[in-house]
Amino acid sequence: MNSEDSSLSRSLPCVKCKETLSTIKSFDGVVVDRCRQCSGTWYDGGELEQVLGPAFDYQALMRTVSMRFSDYICPCCKMAMRALVFKFQHGELVIDHCSICRGFWLDSGELESVKNLVETIRDGVAPVRIGFSSARPISERAVSVDLDDKPLLKDSALDHYRSVDYETGSEIDQIGVSAYLFSALTALPIEVFNPVKAPAFAMYLLIMLNIAVYVHTGSLVPDKIMPFMREFGAVPLDVLSGKLHTLVTSMFLHINFWHLFANMYVLFVFGDNVYDLFNDHGKTRGPLTFVVFYLILGVLSCLIHIIMAAGHPVKSTVPAVGASGAVSGIMAAYCRAFPKSRIYQIIFWYPFKLPIWLYLGIWVLLNIALGLIAGSGARVSWQAHLGGFAFGYLLLPHFMPFHLERLQVNSQKGRVQQ
User: What domains are there in the chain, each with its CATH number?
Assistant: First the structure.
């Protein structure tokens, strides 16, 4: 099917008026979608390049842009778009763009401005980069109402994630060569599609702290490493004797680079979206709540390990170290919050897009199998893994700034504007 046939066989809503866009052939011979009411035009990925010709350089355009949040939802991907802001000496140009399908929405009259912009960039006169803020100021009264008739702030993480179309985004997304090789060589998962709203700064600090402790451990002379591990690791008999602080300190110790890397990588992949949700508690309370949630998961998972290893003649005297219990809890929280997300996993050198529930279900079964085969003598603490996972799944609703049911209701249905 050619591009013209594909365009004629669909019905897209206007991002502003919600009227159905009409498919027309522009004066350049390119088939585009235009709103008869507001005269805005939707350009699918590649169409704006065809209209503007050789002057259009997508990469050069993106290098000069500053991104802000847009009020609009991509008519194809059904996820929030980004406003591309180009600031000049006498004003600024704001156009809306979907980074997933690379489509552009241009309001009436903006095409000529974009033509001038790309020619300016081509001539080496780049716009002035500006900071990150809301594309269109939203008053405090500008809220939406969800199915529970509860106010929903437009700039909230809840609103952001309810605008994400996981099925379309996962279908469009393809794994790159570097990501494929990384996953194939490490057997670690790669998130297919779950765009974050804001950086997870407190989570990054947790990762940096783990790295700093590992570097310090590596700087010790060999005969000092094991005493250090025994002092700050969670030795079951010592914890039961009152050395409770090691339930926390043991979370930041790792026995080798791969142990550290795997834990921090998985925390990075799954933790940023969970952290994002917590931001709706507030700029200070949100990050603090995430850190407390993470630490509680680590402590509880370590307690499960200690209780189950206490009767083992060897394991009861061996320090338990690592962040895997807390990270397992974050994985479970991610699965409960984002059940429609998918994970790339390389199996026999083929990249599969596995539903998150299937991927983590296999992971849980592998830990159960390890427990049945090796029992308390296993080198890997399957007890902490399963305990952390269970606590993360069960405790998440008690730490959330809103009910999970509100997150998982399709934001495109049952919502009206006030």
Answer: 3-137 (no CATH), 161-407 (1.20.1540.10)
